[in-house]
Amino acid sequence: MREIFILTRASLINNFNLHSLNPANFNQYRNMKEARKVLLFIFVVVALMPAYVLYIRLMRQIGFSFLMINQESYFMALAHYASVMMVFFLGLTYVLSYYYFSRDTDMLIPLPVKGRSIIISKFISLLVFEYFVLGIFIIPAIIINHSLVGGGLVYYLKAMLVFLLTPVVPLSLASVIIITIMKFTNIKGKKDLIRVVSMFLFLFVFLGLQIVIQRAMMNIPFGNEQEFFSKLFTDNRYMIDMLGRFYPLSKWAALGLADNSMAALTGLVGLLLTSIVFFTAVVLFSEKMYLGGIIGGNETQSKKKALSKEEFVKASGKVSSSFMAIFRVDLITLIKTPIYMFNCVSIVVLVPFIFLVMPALTGVSSDMDVFIGIYESNVKLFAFGLAGAYMLFAALNPTASTTFSREGKTFYITRIIPVAAKDHIVGRALAPVLMQIFTIIVVSFGIRFYIPLDLSTMVISAFLGFAASLPVILSGILIDISRPLLDWDNPQRAVKQNMNVIIAMAIGAIMALAIGFLTYLMININLATLIILLIDLIIIVALIYVVYNLLTRRITYQLANME
Question: Model pTM?
């Protein structure tokens, strides 16, 4: 236990950068730097509070909606199920990062430390991080659920137990999946490609399975609608039982918090025992499979093919433009690094899947009359609203806002190569621009499968959405060069734990809201579509001009003065 405690403490200090809080490391420069970080964190929290308040209000409305149909306990089951899905998907990238790309693993393997202790300490560290993320989403649900089902101090003690046990099972499953993929895809030559493809295939299969399960849960047999609604209002555990057939842990968690009956006690005991079994299983499995996978994951293969004289002359004679060289390096880094692939590129792959497959599998395509009515009643508002959605998507993608941070300690190469600032801007903007183009095309045609968009609406929304995404992408690059996160020992930090991503999202959202509000006012005074489009484009071009000039000056200064 002492060994596990020491390893876990060291891991948490390293992962959360707690050593920077040591008074012995303070000096005037560090104090100013840390003060700026604290002020920036407070600013981001305050900026996100309105959205969080809306989230809490939405959760409260959902809870009282279930109360009105006598299914108040299902609210907690649904919140628990959604939290489990979130932990599982986040856990895939966290396990991949902390198990295989963290430099502390290479230092621990030669030490006289038990493999089981390494596994348990890493798993606990991931649990602690998941608790911080999970708490933001599930704690409001726990408080709202208390107002629905009642209970005093005992309720909150049980809720604490449910909260602590919630991420154990999904994180265990994510660990087993990642370790298995890393272990059995150690194939010579195309190892990184095979691993990325395997993970995406698994995600597609898992998402498809979840969609089919949800469709089966809510599928009411034709002719039995009256019986369904009768059970819904008379049996307050009817919807919990439907969910429990596919995921009993959420049912047990909800029943455990519902009352003090024997069913509640049984639910809590079942949740506890299942978590213990999964934790023990993942430790034993990881102990047998992990070290082999980590060794295999660190192996590299080099192609030793001698070039002929003609091939050498041909290869050395190829000269590409500076911005294309930067773009190729950036794109290859994104694709070949699984952490970057999952956090930056996977969104572009998953969005087409969601738009083209999910409605068909869930039967939503048959319930599009409401959306079709909104489109037909106000085509102009729909077109500009869709363009705003494209702009928000550009703000949510972390590719631009981590372009320099992803280089880490190799950033010195960027500093010394003789490349102009404009080539850096164009080269680093090309990757997020291409992702944005792909997403706009797929989403536009995906929506047309379900809503009969006319060609002019598609063209206006796609063109304006693409143009509006350019200042968002440039502002992301500006933020990252102004405060790049280069000192990291784990690529996960460059993307998932980079404050630049949050700042870029906030600035992109502010741009989208400002332009959207102005467009809404112009629509309300019945301006012509062409005039609204021209005014929006003038504002967007002005933003691009301002951000581009600021970015040019900032890149020139940073490359000349950064240590």
Answer: 0.70
Question: Mean pLDDT for the chain?
Answer: 79
Other beta carbons within 10 Å of 42 = 10
pLDDT for 220 beyond 60: no
Q: What is the mean pLDDT of residues 358-366?
A: 48
Contact 375, 448 (CB under 8 A): no
251: number of Cβ within 10 Å = 27
The residue among 181, 143, 180, 179 whose CA lies nearest residue 160 is 143
With DSSP H G I counted as helix, E B as strand and the rest as coil, what are the percentages for the chain, rounded to 5?
A: 85, 0, 15
Residues 106-138 as b/e (b if ≥16 CB within 10 A, e otherwise) read eebeeeebeeebbbbbbbbbbbebbeeebeebb
Contact between residue 169 and residue 275 where contact means Cβ atoms under 8 Å apart = yes
Q: DSSP 3-state assignment of 214?
A: helix
What is the gyration radius of the CA atoms in the chain, in angstroms? 26
Q: Which of 158-172, 176-190, 192-206, 423-437 has the lowest mean pLDDT?
A: 192-206
322 neighbors 427 (Cβ within 8 angstroms): yes
CA distance linking residue 161 with residue 157, whole number of Å: 7
Length of the chain equals 563
Cβ neighbour number for residue 164 with a 10 Å cutoff:
14
DSSP assignment of 373-393 equals HHHHH-HHHHHHHHHHHHHHH
Domain boundaries, the chain: 2-18+27-221+228-298, 322-561
Q: Which long-range contacts does 300-304 make (Cβ < 8 Å, 24+ apart)?
A: 301/188, 301/189, 301/191, 303/189
- Whole-angstrom Cα distance, residue 261 to residue 263? 5
- The tokens describing 545, both together, are 């001009």
